[in-house]
Amino acid sequence: MPSGLPAPVTELSADDARRLILRAQGFLGADSRRGGVGAMLRRLAAVQLDTISVLARSHELVAYARLGAVGRAKVERAYWHDPASAFEYWCHAACVLPIDHWPLYAFRRRAYRDRRFRWHEVPPTIDKVLQQVRDEGPLTTTELGGAKNGGPWWDWSDVKIAVEFLLDIGEVVCTRRVGWRRVYDVADRVVPAALLGQELTDAECVVRLARVAGAALGVATRADIVDFLRLKGVYATMLDDALLDGSAGLVPVRVSGWAAARRAGTGAAAGRAVANAWADPLALESAPKGRHRTTPLSPFDSLVWDRARTERVFGFTHRLEAYVPKDKRVHGYFTMPVLAGGRLIGRVDPAREGTTFVARHVAFEPGPTGRVPAAAVEAMSQALHEAATWVGCDTVRVDRVSAPELALPLQAALRES
Predict the structure, then answer these.
(1) What CA–CA distance (Å, rounded) separates 182 from 44?
(2) What domain of life (predicted)?
(3) I want to staple 321 with a disulfide (CB 3.0 to 4.6 A). Which of 188, 223, 329, 374 is the partner?
(4) CA 65/CA 305 separation, integer angstroms
(5) d(CA 165, CA 127)
(6) pLDDT digits (tens, 9 = 90+) for 188-221
(7) Which spans in 318-406 are helix H?
(8) End-to-end alpha-carbon separation of the chain, Å?
(9) Could you tell me if 51 and 90 are in contact, meaning their C-beta atoms sit under 8 angstroms apart?
(10) What is the mean pLDDT of residues 301-324?
(11) Dihedral through CA 269, CA 274, CA 280, CA 282, nearest 10?
């Protein structure tokens, strides 16, 4: 609860913060694997969606990275086939979110409704589209009359514009996907009545979402939370107030080596002004322990989706190159960072040819001495072999290794795995 006294600030080393983050994100300790995909979604609070599919789609890779060889059909069921457990909406980006969080996004639904515009002007036929979904739903855009006008990908039909705006303002919900196409139904058939009936103010939404994001991130700067929730303007100010007065339920921490916070405080906030980050108080109650996951990560995984945070926490510079011209790519089209021992040890640009997992490019990060540790080669081999098995491949082929002297050791490790 807020008080007039300066808030104590917990001191954390950069390694302490990194381990707390890994545990919160489900990569350290056995507890993160309990409860399967549904529990994982509730812990992460948001799983980003993306159209790119190389080994699998990103939302599947997120589950695999934490849970191991979970069945892909089980992942799909947990996200969409039980509409009372999850829904799609805008958080960090287009995400799968726990259905219990439906009331928390009322501020964003109201903002879209007030603007009546996002990427396109909302057509006057929107009420007709809503009535069709109510009468005939659940429906895909094709069943509603078609998604495109025949031009470029952004040349949406009026039906597509209308139904996507209805999703933005919460009148319809994506109940599942078929062939990656959204299936829409009206919210009052999908969202439990107890959740539909909750009316939160904008400030209440932001305060509660700040607590949710803080728990999912473990330790986070103000900028990390802003990026997680994509807050700006008045909503970012609400977040600042919630952090500084304590109503967000997060505690101030000072992480060694992280930059100082930009915003100072007065009064009760003065004690918090020396903090440079915020932490989930439950995360601070016990030291992280247990086994680390070894796995490739989707570039859209919440552990690494914020590039500035990834560099701060792991000293790892990562850029998605899918939209970079081919001749200008450094690491590859869908380069996946590889996590092992709580560190990002390198990256792989994967592909699949039949039952062969192809590592088109493998790059290693140097260790503290400037050399790549031998353990990193073994860990990379394990990550590639296990991911290959999960997607139904029985062999692994490595086309290129950025450090040529590591190519033979990596091949040897793969043969032994």
Answers:
(1) 22
(2) Bacteria
(3) 329
(4) 14
(5) 11
(6) 999 999 999 999 999 999 999 999 999 999 999 9
(7) 374-390
(8) 53
(9) no
(10) 94
(11) -100
Residues 253, 385 share a domain: no
Query: Residue 123 corresponds to which tokens in the numbers above?
Result: 């057509």
Residue 41 lies in a domain: yes
Nearest Cα to 142, choosing from 171, 179, 95?
A: 179
3 state DSSP class of 389: helix
Verify that 141 and 64 share a domain, yes or no: yes
- Residue 249 has a pLDDT of 97
Contact 261, 272 (CB under 8 A): no
Q: Residues 149-158: pLDDT tens digits?
A: 554 545 688 8
Output the pLDDT for position 261: 83
Cis-peptide, bond into residue 138, ω within 30° of zero: yes
Does residue 392 carry a pLDDT above 70? yes
Distant-in-sequence, close-in-space partners of 88: CB < 8 Å, separation ≥ 6:
49, 94, 95, 96, 97, 167, 173, 174, 182
pLDDT, average across residues 119-127: 88
What is the token pair recorded at 296?
Answer: 């490739």
Question: Which neighbouring-strand residues pair with 401?
Answer: 362
Total domains in the fold of the chain: 2
Instruction: For residue 302, tell me if it sits in a domain.
Output: no
260 and 403 assigned to the same domain: no
Whole-prediction pTM: 0.92
Encode 135-204 in three state secondary structure. Answer: HHCCEEHHHHCCCECCCCCCCECHHHHHHHHHHHCCCEEEEEEECCEEEEEEHHHHCCHHHHCCCCCHHH
Do residue 61 and residue 195 come from a single domain? yes
Helices (H), 285-399: 307-314, 374-390
Q: Are residues 120 and 193 in the same domain?
A: yes
Q: Is the pLDDT of residue 270 over 60?
A: no
Question: What CA–CA distance (Å, rounded) separates 73 from 65?
Answer: 16
Question: In the prediction, which pLDDT does 266 show?
Answer: 47
Residue 304 lies in a domain: no
Q: Taking the CB of residue 244, how many other CB atoms lie within 10 A of it? A: 24
Domain encompassing residue 131: 1-297
State how far the Cα of 227 lies from the Cα of 308, in Å rounded to an integer: 10
Do 248 and 117 share a structural domain?
yes
Q: Is 196 in contact with 148 (CB distance < 8 Å)? A: no
